[in-house]
Amino acid sequence: MELYQVYENNHHDFLRFAVSLTRNREAGQDLVQSAYVKALEQDELFEWMNQHQIKGWFFTVIKRMYIDEYRRNKMGRDLMNQMQANAYEPSFVSALCTADALSQLPPPLDHIASLKMDGFTSQEIGEQVNLPASTVRNHLQNIRKLLLKEE
Asked: Which end of the chain is more exposed for a tag (fewer CB within 10 A), N or C?
């Protein structure tokens, strides 16, 4: 019963901490929920802990889960960076992978992404599609998020 009490009493603190890490409320809620599930799976671990130790355990697990997720996402970003590097030295396989990834993007973003892959700057892309360079950079950021989400 002590585990449940610690969770109920500190749920908002756990959530605030998780949101501060993820900068996203839903992702923070997922982290807190995953930590609680992990705690329930290891309930024998808490038999000898007091409330402060259990609370510390939650904060540690939330942070470690966030780091694990960050590393998984970083690998996705590294893959995308590799795809961009391959755009300058295209092989048949990388060209197919790039074409497939670009085909998944909605119409205005696919053109912007292909121009970026061809080595154009945000300013040059903006001139070609009649958008400010800052809007092009915003679109490129959205493209990165979409591509990482699909992996």
From this structure: N
- Domain regions of the chain by residue span: 2-71, 90-150
Q: So what's the pLDDT on residue 91?
A: 54
The most distant pair of C-alpha atoms in the chain lies apart, rounded to whole Å, by 66
- For CA atoms 14, 19, 21, 22, the dihedral sign is positive
The dihedrals phi and psi of 23, each to the nearest 5 degrees, come to: 60, 30
The one-letter amino acid code at 44 reads: E
Rounded to whole angstroms, how far apart are CA atoms 74 and 67? 10
Where helices occur in 42-91 by DSSP H, the ranges are 51-88
CA atoms of 63 and 124, how far apart (whole Å): 41
| H or E element in which residue 24 lies | none
User: What would the mean pLDDT of 98-107 be, rounded to a whole number?
Assistant: 72
| Structure confidence at residue 29 (pLDDT) | 93
In terms of C-beta density within 10 A (0-12 exposed, 13-18 middle, 19 or more buried), how is residue 137 classed?
Answer: middle
Q: Estimate to the nearest angstrom the gap between the alpha carbon of 133 and the chain centroid.
A: 25
What would be the CATH architecture of the domain defined by 90-150? Orthogonal Bundle (1.10)
